[in-house]
Amino acid sequence: MTPLVSSNTPAPLGLLAELTHRCPLQCPYCSNPVDLIRRSQELDTQTWCRVFSEAADLGVLQMHLSGGEPTARKDLEELVRHASGVGIYTNLITAGVNVSGERLEVLAAAGLDHVQLSMQGADPVTTDKISGMAGAHLRKRNFAGEVHRLGLPLTLNAVIHRANIHQIADFIDLALELGAKRIEIAHAQYYAWALKNRAALMPRREQVLEAQRVVEEARAQLKGRLVIDSVVPDYYARYPKPCMNGWGRQSLNVTPSGQVLPCHAAETIPGLEFWNVQDHGLSDIWYHSPAFNAFRGTDWMPELCRSCERREIDWGGCRCQALAIAGDASATDPACHKSPLHQQLLDMAEADSEAEESYVYRRYRNPAPVES
Ligand code: SF4
Ligand code: FES
User: Fold this and answer.
1) Which stretch of DSSP H or E encloses residue 95?
2) Which listed site, 112, 178, 180, 191, has its alpha carbon 20 to 30 Å from 299?
3) What share of the chain in percent tops pLDDT 70?
């Protein structure tokens, strides 16, 4: 087949394997699609293992086993063993509420390299409220204890929004207490399900500035003890984030039913053609599929970005955010201060941050929106 892209397209480094959309939590900031994939549509064990082998051949070094809740898959141990066997570093991204110490031990023996634990709040009241699960905080703490006991490296993942942005210092203390070596302070992204909750989640500008101050102070104090990853939410910044480090440059996402996406929310973009691992090899998908080539490189960019000195720094920002705000996935990301829609984005963020909205919880078993 003739490549649609120049031969210098780099091989991907990472693969996000969304093993299932099943999840015991109900977080309102969920970035999974509004229409979830049912269990009966999930790829089987053999197909996932083939995908992992193809990923290793393609050059993938790291695999994030995610969902939904990946431990809902009974074959997770087999999947970890296979990925590890083909030489890929495996990271389990979990809510940690339904995993026993015994199961974690089996996963570690199968070759699991790293655990990333989501925390919705720094205290039980906040975690239980945001996750929609009574007792979730305690379960997560117990799970982190098991990770520590087994000597697995632990990263805490805190998704930040208006209801917990004042807890950043507490999240950092919690990470230290639980023995984590890294914490990701990840501000909520507003697409897919989370878009429904933007007005209930959006922090105020002064909260974001204070959060950044706390992060900078902690970084200086904890150098060498805890790595703190944090990026200013781009609607309050001058430039957009380099989403995915550029479309089709470093990583790919495989959905529970085998669609391969350039980013988590790519299916929100109308008109893109995604290929499935059940019909195509992973290498063919990476180099030749229409979706991966739609926004690869700089040729697709509008003039504003194409002539900008930052075009290969932020890669024009986020296509899904451009779609959500500008209604056009190939527009300059309105998070960029040069975009004609930037002021509109700021006005929207400020209006949302003052709104008094209740959460629309994400429910796997009852996917219809339910107000809090
Ligand atoms: Fe980035 Fe485009 Fe803005 Fe330049 S104009 S900073 S490339 S988003
Ligand atoms: Fe799709 Fe940013 S989430 S490009």
Assistant:
1) none
2) 191
3) 96
Q: Say if ligand 1 is within 6 A of residue 297 CB.
A: no
Q: Is the pTM of this model over 0.70?
A: yes
Q: Which amino acid is at 253?
A: N
Whether ligand 1 lies within 6 angstroms of the CB of 215 is answered as no
Q: Which ligand is nearest to the CA of 335?
A: 1
The Å distance, Cα 12 to ligand 2 centre, comes to 16
Helix axes 342-354, 319-326, angle to 10 degrees: 80
* Residue 320 Cα to ligand 1 middle (Å): 15
Q: If we measure between CA atoms, which residue out of 144, 329, 325, 71 comes closest to residue 80?
A: 71
Cα separation, 262 vs 274, in Å, equals 9
**What CA–CA distances, in Å, run from 351 to 9, 13, 192, 202?**
41, 39, 20, 9
* Cα distances (angstroms) measured from residue 123 to each of 24, 155, 202, 367: 19, 17, 20, 27
Cβ–ligand 2 distance for 265 under 6 Å, the answer: yes
Atom of ligand 2 lying closest to residue 295 CA: 4
Ligand 2 atom, smallest distance to 321 CA = 2
**Strand 260-261 vs strand 154-160: parallel, antiparallel, or unpaired?**
unpaired
pLDDT classification of 365: cutoffs 50, 70, 90: low
d(CA 108, CA 146): 11
Closest CA to 362 of 122, 190, 197, 142: 197
Asked whether 316 lines ligand 1 (CB < 6 A), one says yes
Our answer on whether the CB atom of 16 is closer than 6 Å to any ligand 2 atom is no
